Amino acid sequence: MTETVELRNKPELIFILNTNEFNIFDASDLKNNGTYSYTEIKSAELNPERTNWLISILSVIVDFLTGSGNGGKFKTKANLILKTEKRNLKIWLNDADYGKAEKITELINKNKTYTQQQP
């Protein structure tokens, strides 16, 4: 079973899902690139784009006090977080296909076989 899923064209963000592992090619953040085994994945978490209300309110207050005209809505961009024993990967999904990202998250969580090792 090999499935290639392209989430974004420019800069490229591609997942290649195999039976026991998956590959990530993220042209916007090269430290995410690599091959990851499903056994090392603790969890895959998809976070949608959200308005950061605290920053938005603070920017409106500052704008009101200074009259600078910079106030507005500030958003936290959508991202996919892959947690492993050694590190957490945060893959930003700017201009990516969110539906495909949901599918990848489900497949990774379904295939992950991480087990906590007891000393």
Pick out its properties:
single chain, alpha+beta, four-stranded antiparallel beta sheet, three-stranded antiparallel beta sheet, 24% helix, elongated
Walk me through the structure.
This protein is an alpha+beta fold. It contains 2 helices and 9 strands; from the N terminus they run ββββββαβββα. The strands form 3 sheets. A 4-stranded antiparallel beta sheet has the order 1-2-3-4, covered by helices on one side. 24% of the residues lie in helices and 36% in strands.
Could you write a compact summary of the structure shown?
With 119 residues, the protein is of the alpha+beta class. The protein has helices spanning 53-66, 98-111; strands spanning 3-8, 13-17, 21-26, 34-37, 41-47, 50-51, 75-76, 79-84, 88-92.
Per DSSP, the total helix count is 2
The neighbouring-strand order within the major sheet is 1-2-3-4
Low-confidence stretches: none
Overall radius of gyration? 18 Å
**Spatial separation of the terminal alpha carbons:** 34 Å
- Count the E strands: 9
Mean pLDDT: 86
